[in-house]
Amino acid sequence: MTAIALIVGHNARAQGAVRATDGRTEYDWCGDLAAAIKAHGPGMYAVIRRQSHPSGYASEIRNAYVTADAMGVSATVELHFNGGPATATGTETLTSGTKGSLRLARLIQPAMVGALGLRDRGLLTRGRNDRGGESLWAGRAPAVLLEPYFGSREADCQAADRHYAALAAAIHRACVAFINGA
Ligand SMILES: [Zn+2]
Fold first, then answer.
1. Distance in Å, CA 80 to ligand 1 centroid
2. pTM of the model as a whole
3. Checking CA distances to 179, which of 54, 55, 68, 121 falls within 20 to 30 Å?
């Protein structure tokens, strides 16, 4: 059974932030990261891409998470990278603050920090109506949203490229630990 849904941030029409080094978008880059994570345990993951929806953003998010819940997943992991001023740096994980979401976030955040070696910005708890909150609250399964680095900063992009395989492996190991009850 599919244990974890990897949800690619943004959609084909509105692809999110772009990387300072090569102009790749979140939708593009995170789709590759999802595939790299899934390669560690093909039967364990489903990759879900959000589809832009005529009724708007809330429907786009809801549809992705309804799909994940229909698979009976134990958790969802939405993949992004951060944007901001060119000086902003580091790794953060968004959590709803529910017990399951926090347990997963506390496994994934240090795993990502260990892989990339960037500043540990910690966990950010988001309510349903906060920015990024809809993704954390739309589904039944515990949800986290990952921001491993700032695409707006060249050195962060370079760290993500240099440690790309380690990042995918670290997220996978954290997901396995979550499934095993760590
Ligand atoms: Zn994003």
1. 4
2. 0.97
3. 121
The reported pLDDT for the residue numbered 131 is 85
What is the Å distance from ligand 1's center to 121 Cα? 16
Task: Dig out the tokens for 84 from the structure.
Answer: 């901001």
Q: Is residue 1 pLDDT above 80, yes or no?
A: no
List domains and CATH numbers for the chain. 4-179 (3.40.630.40)
Residue with tokens 């976030």: 105
Centroid of ligand 1 to alpha carbon of 83 (angstroms)? 8
Dihedral angle of Cα 114, 116, 122, 127, to the nearest 10 degrees: -120
Q: What is the DSSP string of 58-98?
A: HHHHHHHHHHHHHTT-SEEEEE--B---TT---EEEEE--S
- How remote is the CA of residue 148 from the centroid of ligand 1, in Å? 11
CA of 2 to the centre of ligand 1 (A): 24
Looking at every residue in the chain, the average pLDDT score rounds to 97
* Ligand 1 centroid – CA 43 distance (Å): 26
Is residue 182's pLDDT more than 90? no
Closest CA to 156 of 22, 11, 10: 22
pLDDT at 14 over 90: yes
